[in-house]
Amino acid sequence: MVKLLDDYQKDAPAFHRAGITVPQFDQDQMIDATEKNPVWVHFGGGNLFRCFHSMIAQQLLNSGDLQSGIIVAETYDDEVIDQVYHPEKNRFLAVEMKSDGTLAKELVASVADSVYAGADNQAGRAQLAQIFTKPSLQLATFSITEKGYALTDMNGELTKAAAADIANGPANPVTNMGFVTSLLLARYQANQAPIAMVSTDNFSQNGQRLQDAVMQIANGWRKNGLVDQGFLNYLADRDKVTFPWSMIDRITPNPSAEVAKQLQADGFEDTALVHTTKHTNIAPFGNTEETHYLVIEADFPNGRPALEKAGVMMTDRETVNDADQMKVTACLNPLHTALAIFGCLLGFKSIASEAADPDLLKMIKNLGYGEDLPVVKNPGIINPKEFIDTLVTKRLPNKNIPDTPQRIASDTSQKVGIRYGVTLQHYVDDPDRDPADLEFIPLVIAGWCRYLMAINDDGTAFTPSPDPLYDQLHEYVAGIKLGEQADVHAALQPILSNTAIFGNDLYEIGIGEKVEGAFAQMIKGPGAVRATIQTTLNKFGKY
């Protein structure tokens, strides 16, 4: 049996017998180089980072194109650092789950340091602030999910935390964006060195959202006399600070107990799953799919690692946006979220089993090919139709990917405006198209409203996935009972007319009533959700 802390250089044959590829560099030397000249900080130490970003750095360290490793900054969950990173010298096992059922395993040692930097850890924050003063630092990347950027509530008002950050200044912000802005302030005050702030989170125009949030905090501080105008000028100078856009795609579910058993059988010892107090699911290993894409706008004022040598597509902003719009708003994420919503309602426990369900497979094909694809711009570097083809024939049906609808359903209120609202806006903007002609986007939105009841299709209660707006939205539908008369319009109107959620008032663009109609069908009694999907397919399905 081999362990993460074993000497992977001296004991390389033992790792190879367990089918594990080992790093081609000395981790201690890499740590020393990082301490002297840090290059890359990453915010968010979760499973996507461990299976994607860290692997990019590892490939470049192996080839000698990078000498400095990644410094991980975790702002949400201290147990991730204390229980998973630090005990294993920041090492972990990346497991690629291939569609033929085999596992490709690699020991990852590209993380030089990991820091918990929540508002309750001043030492960690001070350490990161010091790192941000280093002129060698070229980039900070982010995988903190949509809610990590949030400064406003569903009504567009500043949250209490954001308002407090703006009022109290940079000393100890509570929000992620307040903290990141304080780090940029430390860099400005030290030397005004350039840096690229690269959001790689899974939503459209992510770099713009990061920039807008940082500028909102910084402008608030300036208005309150807490920073000088020079700081705002520094943030706005593209020769100093940039916020490149990106598109990222790699399905990375929570660590799987089944994968853990297979790793044990193969001779790898460190497989204990960790469920933290804050409900993070993590382990000494991460499991991910083999298909992956990362497209980044090439706008790095202080230089950058040779990311393209590790498979990252470096291009201009327009191409990044086209690729991102293709994936996030049309060819993957809307289909994924549809499966998440209906998977929870119909009692599914895996995405792969949903992809084998004829009704659900037809639903996402009609959603993707029929309603999303017609308004997608081809980014050139990835073919949209081939992307969906791969998704529905290879990626989603991969039984080796232990992904669940419950995981994908997390934070849906933060996603629907992007995953469906952008396509809706395309239909609004195109004089030759009419949103009222859509059938499957309204079906999914109705399904989400039905999901907010927290009653599945057989009439029993289920526990919804975490969502910052769930409690508020649940109240609108909490009084509705299956099989009983309900004022559907009164219940759904506050949700469907909320432009902060969807980007449009759905009634004004002609689909609010259609959503209400599908929802009314879904609450007729047990089995009504499945029946509504089948009725919609029978009437309007083309795929």
SSE arrangement:
Layout: H1 12-17, E1 20-21, H2 27-36, E2 40-43, H3 47-63, E3 70-74, H4 78-85, E4 92-97, E5 103-108, E6 111-116, H5 122-132, E7 139-142, H6 160-168, H7 176-190, E8 195-199, H8 206-223, H9 229-236, E9 241-242, E10 246-249, H10 257-266, E11 274-275, E12 281-282, E13 285-289, E14 293-297, E15 313-315, H11 317-331, H12 333-346, H13 351-355, H14 358-372, H15 384-395, H16 405-408, H17 416-419, H18 421-429, H19 440-451, H20 470-477, H21 488-496, H22 499-502, H23 512-522, H24 528-540
Parallel strand pairs: 1-5, 2-3, 2-7, 3-6, 4-13, 7-8, 8-9, 14-15
Antiparallel strand pairs: 4-5, 10-14, 11-12
Describe this structure in words.
The chain is of the alpha/beta class and 543 residues long. It contains 24 helices and 15 strands. Helix 19 packs across helix 23 (512-522). It starts with 11 loop residues before the first helix and ends with a helix.
